[in-house]
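S.,

Sequence below, as promised.
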Amino acid sequence: MPVEIIIKIAALGIVIALLNQVLKHAGRDDQAFFVTMAGMIVVLTWLLPYLVELFQSMQSLFGL
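The prediction came back faster than expected:
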């Protein structure tokens, strides 16, 4: 896994955390929830190719 993806995830996490706090402080808890879920979906789509590669290497390693 490249270091760039870890830095991207950390940066997005900081931005999402700040947005979440601002929205919760403004009384918009529902929008804060959706912003957090959108951040999780973005991170999962970034990680999906690496997870596929991991499972393929495990499959070839164990001969399944």
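Residues 3-57 form one domain.

Coffee later?
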